[in-house]
Amino acid sequence: MTLTLVVPILGPPAVGKTTLTLALGDDARRRSFRLRDQVPAEVLAATAGTVERLGWIDTDIVGQTMRSYLDSLVHRDVDVVLMDNFPGSAEQVSLLLDTLAHSAPRARVEPIEMRADSKVLRKRARHRRVCQRCEKDPVADPRIPARSSLLDDWLCGKCGALLHFRRSDAPRLLEARTKRFNSSIGEIRAAFTTNGIDITILDAALPADRAIHLVEPMLNSRSTIS
Ligand SMILES: [Zn+2]
Q1: Per residue in 22-67, pLDDT tens?
Q2: Which of 54, 85, 96, 226 has the smallest set of CB atoms within 10 Å of its CB?
Q3: Is 5-117+173-223 in CATH node 3.30.450.40?
Q4: What are the sequence ranges of the domains in the chain?
Q5: 152 CA distance to ligand 1 centroid (A)?
């Protein structure tokens, strides 16, 4: 295991977590972790039903998923894992730290919390679009922001298909997701702090490329500390 750094990327819906995670993870020695990519489709389907169950995944499954994901990195030259919107609760912080202590005891955890005011977030959610064709989501609920074609905002810049709003950006769901984030971030921060882990705050009102440039050197310098 060459893993030396794990970077949970946290923040409210539409703050730009996925965009940042994917941009930073675009490197041979880095990986981006998204919980929903790792759990079976039937588990995912069960979390999509109602607002109450939105994104909820059983703790045992999260634990198993973490373990098998980290085990899959054992024979790979991966230095950094970026975690998109994970952990999502104090319980998941403990799961992550316990699993790392067992599978990758040398790995440091350096969470980043992205922050922006509600006006910026609402604007981002309104402008965000996804591509059903480019992103083969197991329950047909694509999440990754798509780049529009230069000629037409509503066409995918990669494949030309018609883009859609992200399903969970619908006002009622966005509100529920924001509420859930606001009610859990306090316990997540506390769980990290209790374990002696500081959270870096990133001003996410900055344009995405500026935010990426701010974080990039941090990943390189910290991952080489042995
Ligand atoms: Zn596309």
Answers
A1: 999 989 999 999 988 888 777 777 776 555 555 677 888 889 999 9
A2: 226
A3: no
A4: 5-117+173-223
A5: 13
